[in-house]
Amino acid sequence: VTHAAGGFAGALSESLTPASETPFNVPIGPHRRFDWTRFDMGLLREVRSRLGGTLNDVVLACVAGAVRTHLSAHGLALDDIDFRVLIPVSTRRPEERGKLGNRVSMLVAHLPVDEPDIRRRLERVIEETGRLKASGQIEGAAAMEEIGDWTGAGIIPGLNRLAATRRIFNMVVTNVPGPQFPVFLCGSRLLASYPVVPLFENQALGVALFSYDGELFWGFNSDWDAIADLHDFALAVEREFEALRKL
Fold this sequence. Notes:
Strand content: 15-25%
Oligomer: single chain
Shape: globular
Distance between the termini: 42 Å
């Protein structure tokens, strides 16, 4: 309980300072652009086993590099930039496996978009996710969700809206594990599944990932007007992964 309380208090105090202003955090309209890419899971595991961290760390390192490229292309100074991503994390306990409904908490991670060296960028992502796991924020967020269950459903959505309007984070990056075997509908095999994450207020780009049948599918959802060069961002993610493979 103490660990969870400390984690929640730490996350709350950190949220009092907004993340850096970026082209991703502007008022958005009703129109959307969507782009996509896909990675081979075997190649991802190869990078992870050789360079360290988790599959999600490799994903976040690719996002950090793509964000760095995007911000640099738009003329932003990268020194001391505080770029944060909101990462949904499953808090489902083993005894809850297979039950209906979601048990998800939110972590806010600082991405090292100021780091020019790609290997060091991955190392800093690994350090950041390790810090979050040890901080008690997952337990604190789970406890807050349970309080929401007791007091009514309005508290968590309200906090999420507050987080978006105060720019506590710059972007959502969500990674959902899927079945690692082919699935069929009416005899037809599902070949690909590109996910979509909705955009928050003043959040012009969201990144969603879904692993299925040996591949990792990326979906990039953006505001039509704010991110006109969305395809360049998707290509930057691909280049980051290829650069990690060559290390």
